[in-house]
């Protein structure tokens, strides 16, 4: 499905508003939209709402063999799914340009910045390491997917707990959460990506562009930074020429934004930790807003089972009994399978003689069956024998008339064995 | 061992939120206990020529797992959901158009398929698509003692001898779709269907309550 195109009027309106330092949603130039971080029921699941943009990240782990070049380092794997849920323009199962760009940026932001201690993920050097997989699902696309994805991914990584492992000799035991408390990952710093969009060849700058603004922007600058004001990655796309001062200004804004966001993440993590410690239920279901008119919750409800047994037996009694007789396949000899229920080949006449010999060898049960077949064939021959038309200019040199004699009118209820003899006899006659 | 009716059959608490996403034409999240599914519907919209059907709308269902890419399990679930939706939607009213239903698994703690079906129905309702009837999904498990459990958790599913999921329509409480796993007798099957029909009444009541709340003027 194609995305709805942006009309020229909308484009002009947006650009004019930006020129007047106004934004559609009433934000100031450097304002982020309202951000909300929630956690799922299990560890390592995080939802980030950035305005209407909604992203889910899930971290999972697996024991794998390490890369040969780095035998004592764990593996980080990032996957951004541009689910068609987020926008109708995203096609399922296809790597679009945008998804490649986002994946690469997330990798640079989180893997190449070495924010996670991969060496602590090693279990047995050169044999077993933890592979940490981060799946980021876009649920609703309203602009600035990258920032939302990076926040969701790093928060999910902070929230994640991997199972504890014990090594005794060569044996590696993975303990379940009940046996031993799972261990959090060791994270050195939290890089967060901040996006800046440029308009009118870099004259105007906006932080956290929404979807409409992204459509009319000329260029995008993504700066990944941690709260220690260290730049982890910087990427400019859209092909605009930026001045040194602009980049400097952006990095200054980014440092402020990153410290705000980091604080929010730590607060969310702390709240979740408290909730989990208190032993209460936590997760997506609990974070569902109750005050909204579109939401409703219902407590556990019992289902009446009083007349279920009666009803089931009633239905069964009323239903017709299934046929008891099952058409059993005829097996000529134990251990022989066949296709087509032993129908005979009626194409060539020479073959029939051989088959007859075969039939003589086999058991009586099959003989009966075969005779039936023969009977049928015989009847066919009879009917065909009556009206054979010889075409003189036929290409075939030899014309075989299947049954030259006048068809004998024996009643059908004669015994199969006598019939077979006759059939065999008639065939021999044909041979002559 | 035959299943005998027990009195301790219940559905876990449900929750539902509609139109929580801004981009799709209809969206809903449905939670049953800890199991949670997010559904979004796009359409009726332009259809690809290769998928066009001249007398009705093309319905596409996608199930996105939480970790990794969709596999065979998701494909089979997609088919079950699609066939159920096709049975209840009036697709002939939108010929040569496409409907896309995307289901995102948020958390799987048992009875995932029934939760998918319920989320799908709520999302279709939110999108305002014409339907001949509503539908809901109920999962029943028969444990090793022959007891029927409705809406089982993941642990109960694992221990069960047989697992059945039914889609029930709201008009005649007929079974629109069934997916079973494990072995059971005809009597047990009929009992499970009867239980599902009973349980479906609760779910339809919940649908009714949530829609009533949605269109009410006060909370």
UniProtKB/TrEMBL annotation, chain A:
Residues 349-367, 390-399 have a biased composition (Acidic residues). Residues 320-432 are annotated as: Disordered. One of its GO terms (molecular function) is mRNA 3'-UTR AU-rich region binding. InterPro entries: ExoRNase_PH_dom1 (IPR001247), ExoRNase_PH_dom2 (IPR015847), ExoRNase_PH_dom2_sf (IPR036345), Exosome_comp_Rrp42_subfam (IPR050590), PNPase/RNase_PH_dom_sf (IPR027408), Ribosomal_Su5_D2-typ_SF (IPR020568), Rrp45 (IPR033100). Residues 32-163, 189-255 form the Exoribonuclease phosphorolytic domain. Its main location: cytoplasm. It comes from the Eukaryota. Keywords: Cytoplasm, Exosome, Nucleus, RNA-binding, rRNA processing. Residues 333-344 have a biased composition (Low complexity). Residues 368-387 have a biased composition (Basic and acidic residues). It is found in: Cytoplasm; Nucleus, Nucleolus. Residues 419-432 have a biased composition (Basic residues). One of its GO terms (biological process) is U4 snRNA 3'-end processing. One of its GO terms (cellular component) is cytoplasmic exosome (RNase complex). Belongs to the RNase PH family. This is Exosome complex component RRP45. It comes from Dicentrarchus labrax.
UniProtKB/TrEMBL annotation, chain B:
CDD domains: RNase_PH_RRP46. Keywords: Cytoplasm, DNA-binding, Exosome, Nucleus, Phosphoprotein, rRNA processing. The keyword rRNA processing applies. Residues 11-130, 134-198 form the Exoribonuclease phosphorolytic domain. It is found in: Cytoplasm; Nucleus, Nucleolus. InterPro entries: ExoRNase_PH_dom1, ExoRNase_PH_dom2, ExoRNase_PH_dom2_sf, PNPase/RNase_PH_dom_sf, Ribosomal_Su5_D2-typ_SF, RNase_PH. One of its GO terms (cellular component) is cytoplasmic exosome (RNase complex). One of its GO terms (biological process) is rRNA catabolic process. One of its GO terms (molecular function) is RNA binding. Belongs to the RNase PH family. Homodimer. Component of the RNA exosome core complex (Exo-9), composed of EXOSC1, EXOSC2, EXOSC3, EXOSC4, EXOSC5, EXOSC6, EXOSC7, EXOSC8 and EXOSC9; within the complex interacts with EXOSC3, EXOSC8, and EXOSC9. The catalytically inactive RNA exosome core complex (Exo-9) associates with the catalytic subunit EXOSC10/RRP6. Exo-9 may associate with DIS3 to form the nucleolar exosome complex, or DIS3L to form the cytoplasmic exosome complex. This is Exosome complex component RRP46. It comes from Dicentrarchus labrax. The gene is exosc5.
């Amino acid at each position: 499905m194609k995305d709805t195109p942006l009309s020229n009027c909308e484009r002009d309106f947006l650009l004019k508003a930006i020129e007047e330092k106004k934004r559609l949603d009433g934000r100031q130039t450097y304002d982020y939209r309202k951000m909300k971080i929630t956690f799922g029921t299990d560890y390592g699941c995080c939802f980030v709402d950035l305005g209407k943009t909604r992203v889910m990240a899930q971290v999972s782990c697996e024991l794998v063999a390490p890369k040969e070049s780095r035998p004592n380092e764990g593996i980080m794997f990032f996957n951004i799914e541009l689910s068609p849920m987020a926008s109708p323009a995203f096609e399922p199962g296809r790597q679009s340009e945008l998804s490649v760009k986002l994946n690469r940026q997330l990798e640079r932001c989180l893997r190449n910045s070495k924010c996670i201690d991969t060496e602590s993920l090693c279990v047995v050097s050169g044999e077993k390491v933890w592979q940490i997989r981060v799946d980021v699902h876009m649920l609703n696309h309203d602009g600035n997917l990258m920032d939302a994805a990076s926040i969701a991914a790093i928060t999910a990584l902070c929230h994640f707990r991997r199972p504890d492992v014990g090594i005794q000799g060569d044996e590696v035991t993975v303990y379940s959460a009940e046996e031993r408390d799972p261990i959090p990952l060791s994270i050195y710093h939290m890089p967060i990506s901040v996006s800046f969009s440029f308009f009118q060849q870099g004259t105007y700058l906006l932080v956290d562009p929404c979807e409409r603004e992204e459509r009319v922007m000329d260029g995008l600058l993504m700066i990944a930074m941690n709260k220690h004001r260290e730049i982890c990655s910087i990427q400019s796309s859209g092909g605009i020429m930026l001045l040194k001062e602009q980049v400097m200004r952006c990095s200054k804004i980014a440092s402020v934004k990153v410290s705000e966001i980091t604080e929010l993440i730590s607060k969310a993590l702390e709240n979740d930790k408290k909730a989990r410690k208190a032993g209460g239920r936590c997760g997506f279901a609990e974070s569902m807003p109750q005050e909204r008119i579109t939401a409703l919750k219902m407590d556990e409800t019992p289902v009446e089972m009083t007349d279920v047994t009666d009803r089931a037996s009633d239905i069964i009694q009323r239903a017709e009994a299934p046929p008891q007789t099952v058409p059993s396949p005829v097996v000529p000899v134990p251990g022989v399978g066949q296709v087509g229920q032993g129908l005979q080949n009626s194409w060539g006449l020479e073959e029939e003689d051989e088959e007859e010999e075969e039939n003589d060898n086999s058991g009586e049960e099959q003989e009966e069956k075969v005779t039936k077949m023969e009977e049928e064939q015989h009847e066919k021959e009879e009917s065909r024998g009556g009206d054979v038309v010889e075409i003189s200019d036929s290409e075939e040199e030899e014309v075989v008339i299947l049954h030259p004699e006048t068809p004998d009118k024996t009643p059908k209820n004669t015994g199969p064995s006598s019939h077979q003899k006759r059939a065999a006899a008639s065939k021999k006659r044909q041979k002559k | 061992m035959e299943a005998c009716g027990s009195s301790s059959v219940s559905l876990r608490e449900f929750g539902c939120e509609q139109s929580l996403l801004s981009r799709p034409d209809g969206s809903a999240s449905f939670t049953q206990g800890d199991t949670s599914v997010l559904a979004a519907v796009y359409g009726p919209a332009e259809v690809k020529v290769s998928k066009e059907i001249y007398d009705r709308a093309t319905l596409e269902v996608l199930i996105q797992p939480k970790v990794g890419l969709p596999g065979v399990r998701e494909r089979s679930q997609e088919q079950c959901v699609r066939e159920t939706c096709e049975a209840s939607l009036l697709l002939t009213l939108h010929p040569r158009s496409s409907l896309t239903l995307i289901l995102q698994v948020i958390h799987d703690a048992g009875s995932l398929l029934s939760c998918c079906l319920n989320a799908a129905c709520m999302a279709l309702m939110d999108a305002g698509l014409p339907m001949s009837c509503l539908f809901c999904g109920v999962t029943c498990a028969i444990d090793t003692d022959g007891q029927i459990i409705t809406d089982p958790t993941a642990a109960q599913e694992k221990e069960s001898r047989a697992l059945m999921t039914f889609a029930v329509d709201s008009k005649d409480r007929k079974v629109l779709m069934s997916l079973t796993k494990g072995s059971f007798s005809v009597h047990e099957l009929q009992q499970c269907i009867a239980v599902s029909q009973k349980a479906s009444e609760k779910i339809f009541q919940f649908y009714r309550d949530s829609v009533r709340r949605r269109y009410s003027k006060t909370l």
